């Protein structure tokens, strides 16, 4: 029983998993902050791309 408790206290695999989880959370927060900072410009870019694709699709349908 004492050996089991010692091996449990020396096992660091759980700490490693927690560290990886914290790193993943930090990366996620940084990505969300960056995307929010660029939100309007990204929306404008996607709107332009969408409009261009719609124009191309309607032009392709109009020519037989």
Give your account of this protein's structure:
- The chain is 91% helix and 0% strand.
- It has helices at 2-10, 13-37, 39-62.
- By secondary structure, it is mainly α.
Count of β-strands: 0
Overall shape: it is: rod-shaped
Category by helix and strand content:
mainly alpha
Q: What oligomeric arrangement do these chains adopt? A: single chain
Count, helices: 3
What are the salient characteristics of this protein?
64 residues; mainly alpha; 3 helices
Secondary-structure map with pairings?
Layout: H1 2-10, H2 13-37, H3 39-62
Brief overview:
This protein is mainly α.
């Amino acid at each position: 029983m004492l050996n089991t408790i010692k091996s449990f206290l020396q096992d660091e695999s759980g700490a490693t998993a927690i560290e990886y989880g914290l790193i993943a959370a930090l990366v996620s927060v940084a990505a969300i902050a960056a995307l929010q900072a660029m939100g309007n410009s990204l929306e404008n870019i996607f709107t332009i791309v969408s409009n261009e694709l719609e124009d191309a699709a309607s032009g392709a349908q109009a020519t037989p």
